[in-house]
Amino acid sequence: MNPNPTASAHSAAPATPPLVWLPADHRQLGPNDMPYLLLGDKYARAVKVGAQAQPVLFPLAEAAQVGALLALVDGVMLTGSPSNVHPAHFDEDVHDPTLPLDPERDALTLALVRACIAQQVPLLGICRGFQEINVALGGSLHQTVHAVPGLMDHRDPDGLPLEQQYGPSHPVRLAEGSALAQWAGGTQAMVNSLHGQGIGRLAPGVRALAWAEDGLVEAIEVQGATEFAYAVQWHPEWRCEQNPFYATTFEAFGQALRRRQQRRLQAQLAQSTTGAPSATGA
Length: 282
Ligand SMILES: N[C@@H](CCC(=O)NCCCC(=O)O)C(=O)O
Prior knowledge:
Elements: E1 19-21, E2 25-29, E3 34-38, H1 41-50, E4 54-56, H2 66-70, E5 75-78, H3 103-119, E6 123-126, H4 128-136, E7 141-142, H5 162-165, E8 170-174, H6 179-184, E9 188-191, E10 198-199, E11 206-212, E12 217-222, E13 229-232, H7 244-274
Parallel strand pairs: 1-4, 1-5, 5-6, 6-13
Antiparallel strand pairs: 2-3, 7-10, 8-9, 8-11, 11-12, 12-13
Helix pairs in contact: 3-4
The ligand N[C@@H](CCC(=O)NCCCC(=O)O)C(=O)O binds at residues 40, 80-84, 127-128, 194-197, 235.
């Protein structure tokens, strides 16, 4: 019996794609506000097609379970969402009570960020996910970017067709020599923009890698992370197979996922051979 069902004892190539944990949004839908757990199709599709990996959900996973559940996966992608990170997480009151929140998602994802960094699990943040990483590591957000003197309105205009909503919106400058400049093939790129919040104070240990024309930080990396730990304010999941910058972003994420998968499966093999428990599965 192969102790490791997803790879033979001597093969390096696992038979299954790497597994990527995506969080669910908590929404109430329909005339009776029925609770649902939601994941945007384009995020799951970008993991499958762009990173050649398998998206997984752990519905209703709690912060206390994060360490153990991370041992089962090869990466985490924090998706965008119309909801905002609750400002209490960066010691502010809610400025606009009409804007949606998702405290259940916050409780999971903020713990997930810290665990990914501690356990060296590849982490990609997109839009809200980008903001979650900065807040989880001790930074803050502008709750209404367009109300900040000198900053632009980064929201997508209402009523546009999706192709326009997620099409190129503004240029960003990418840090010279950064991974993002490598993925973009230069230090300038056009990106889409669908956000009303944005980074205010950078978290300690987080480095800015991209800026909009108004100076707003649009991409970050977690300094000292031994594995892939990047986040962007824009949406590279949108038609990622048609945009070389977005495609290369997901290819790089996929490479990190496969490195982690090798480590995780070898740890499982060693555990099944020796019986010694592996610390975190990789
Ligand atoms: N609510 C935050 C984050 C915005 C965000 O994630 N937008 C994308 C929502 C739709 C999608 O998932 O594509 C903010 O307003 O800054």
